[in-house]
Amino acid sequence: MNIILLSGGSGKRLWPLSNDIRSKQFIKIFKKQDGTYESMLQRVYRQIREVDVDAKVTVATSRAQISAIHNQLGEEVCISPEPCRRDTFPAMALAAAHLTDIQGIDPEESVVVCPVDPYVEKDYFEALKELFCQARKGEANLVLLGMAPTYPSEKYGYIIPEKEGRISFVKTFKEKPGTEKAKEYIAQGALWNGGIFACKLKYLLQKAHELMEFKDYEDLYEKYETVTKISFDYAVAEKEPRIQVMRFAGEWKDIGTWNTMTEAMEEAVVGKGMMAETCEGVHIVNEMDVPVLAMGLRDVVISASPEGILVADKEQSSYMKPYVDRIDQQIMFAEKSWGSYRVLDVEKGSMTIKVTLHAGSSMNYHSHKNRDEIWTVIEGAGRTIVDGMEQNIKAGDVITMSAGCRHTVIAETQLKLIEVQIGEAISVQDKEKHVLE
Amino acid sequence: MNIILLSGGSGKRLWPLSNDIRSKQFIKIFKKQDGTYESMLQRVYRQIREVDVDAKVTVATSRAQISAIHNQLGEEVCISPEPCRRDTFPAMALAAAHLTDIQGIDPEESVVVCPVDPYVEKDYFEALKELFCQARKGEANLVLLGMAPTYPSEKYGYIIPEKEGRISFVKTFKEKPGTEKAKEYIAQGALWNGGIFACKLKYLLQKAHELMEFKDYEDLYEKYETVTKISFDYAVAEKEPRIQVMRFAGEWKDIGTWNTMTEAMEEAVVGKGMMAETCEGVHIVNEMDVPVLAMGLRDVVISASPEGILVADKEQSSYMKPYVDRIDQQIMFAEKSWGSYRVLDVEKGSMTIKVTLHAGSSMNYHSHKNRDEIWTVIEGAGRTIVDGMEQNIKAGDVITMSAGCRHTVIAETQLKLIEVQIGEAISVQDKEKHVLE
Prior knowledge:
The structure is a homodimer.
Chain A: E1 2-6, E2 30-31, E3 37-38, H1 40-51, E4 56-62, H2 66-73, E5 78-82, H3 88-102, E6 110-115, E7 118-120, H4 122-137, E8 142-147, E9 157-161, E10 167-174, H5 179-187, E11 191-200, H6 201-211, H7 217-223, H8 232-235, E12 243-248, E13 252-254, H9 258-264, E14 269-270, E15 273-275, E16 283-286, E17 292-295, E18 300-305, E19 308-313, H10 321-326, E20 333-336, E21 339-347, E22 350-357, E23 366-367, E24 372-379, E25 381-386, E26 389-394, E27 398-401, E28 407-411, E29 415-422, E30 432-433
Parallel strand pairs in A: 1-4, 1-6, 4-5, 8-12, 14-16, 15-17, 16-18
Antiparallel strand pairs in A: 2-3, 6-11, 7-13, 8-11, 9-10, 9-11, 10-12, 18-19, 20-21, 21-22, 22-29, 23-30, 24-27, 24-29, 25-26, 25-28
């Protein structure tokens, strides 16, 4: 099966675990059998492999997420990067062109397109395989996965099938309705539209060419900024007459808020946390090194990360966006392709961060205009290159780099260092990349 | 007026703001008119000066608190240090001997003794002055301040006066009663015993000599560890026949739990915090650099510090001790006479801390057996002495010290540095002091 995973943008509804650069799909919150934790992205990627070892997975995402995806899925994962955000249809078109023009997949082949962040079990991916095969048959141009509704939600669009049965042609689409309307639709046998579908690659490309002028993948990538924002539902699905829907009644959770997130969590406490017996329906998700103690609470979610601390009634947590938007704070934690960093201390004229590099990885060769940097190695071994001079490093070594000086570090083992930045205008933008000669 | 402030031991009932080394009286939580915050200790010390500029204040405390007291009250404050904890009476006796033998105060003079941590207003200190004068008169050997009870508390001992009126001889003492008994006592005109009293210094010393064998201050200090633990109420007050009580009906709060602490707070939010309109009766006390967001909560206290995060129903917070006792974590923050430090990062073979020195102050000249240290100066100017070699330092300078190497730093301005400790057995105990030649 060919599958395009749409890895969506940043969201703040799972703050403080999600922020401007860490989208919810990267939060490691789901316990694996070995006791470690995986993210929604890692979980979905693993589940696909379990159902179809040969699945060709392409992650369609913004450039900002590339590092984090490589960090979580390894260097081999295939990524179709969007130069900028242009809604779902251009992203799908670009990914489809990536599959045919870059990966050399036959346009006659089918592809499954789905979001990267549903909380699902194995049966969902079995259904995707079926969807893929159904699209191959060519009875319809498009085959949607229709979710059996569990309540009259106002969050989803509804698909009205022509008849009962596992697979049916679609009669009509209904926009997100009010609760009363939703009840009517459900009585008529309507299904939720979860944005999951399969079709032939050539169909997706043909629709793309009808709406956008481009020759091939590279051309579309170049022009991407000039393309009009448009959603797949609006551009294609709602206009297509030959469209089928396949019912899916298995578990499928859209984890967009703390309320739904905690429902999907197996444990009440992730990270360091203690809960008094007087607590009921409380979840603690703590990414800090210090403990959380909860007493006498009911239906509350507590989450702490280097970005901040949330304590919210679970229902109320859905309304956090306007509050989180008011928080004007620098990024305190980030995953990069080479490892991760965490801000430890911020002062007016300095910033102290902890940098962790994976074994075998290295930073870009770079320099800063407005700050000096001092590295103190606290763990591991590797090499630094500073203004062309190479040097072996180990725990306890100190490397000082004045502003303008070019530098990088190469990790032989896992390498950790404390970086002290000194300067009056410290900014992540102050970075110039250089070619290492 | 002469006044001995009893600065009590560590308590965990205000965790995470109080811990093994920071007692509740050091928490800076009360807003001053200039917008900055002061601790209970600073507040009481300031209030005494406002009522009596010439008051001779002596703080009786354990050695562990000396640095924090100097940090908060300055170097001039007079401290009577207890070599170890021996309950209230030996502490008072030692402090009384300090007043006569070290400070040269006439034993015929009176002294007021009171805990350092009540939340009170100016009228309380006016009452202490009156208490002091009443003791001077010598009508009784001991004059207690009796608090007008506001409810039948089980937390206090009760004093039954012989008659009504502002000052009366005491008929009898009652141990902490049940609620029903407390109601009876209150109906009889009983007063709470808050552990506040005045007497002549010679009386306190005479009682001390009756119970403990010692010659003078230095002798008692030397023998302090061998002295029996005994409370003042039990050793003296409850046995003294010539004892008066003075009524006090002003504000007096015993701030021992989060519940009472939040009652005394003027603001709902101290530190970075946001509260949704759906919160009611919520207090946030945040000592971290990142924000707290509270939503949809009722009668909850949230407190975050480098030690941990508490989220508790206010009533339930009184029962936190067994939970906090289970937390086995190193000290993450401490105030020292020269400034303060905060742990930023802990790894297996390293620890990173931020050190802040007050202008003009310096550390001891010391060395460590089992760790190397690297200082990176991030703010200010001063000097280091490393193995006898003196060097001027400023922001951006790096000083490396191998295990065994003797070192200190002298701050000319306020000085901040990042200290990276590298070693396999990092411990606060690994410290040897040396004489600087």
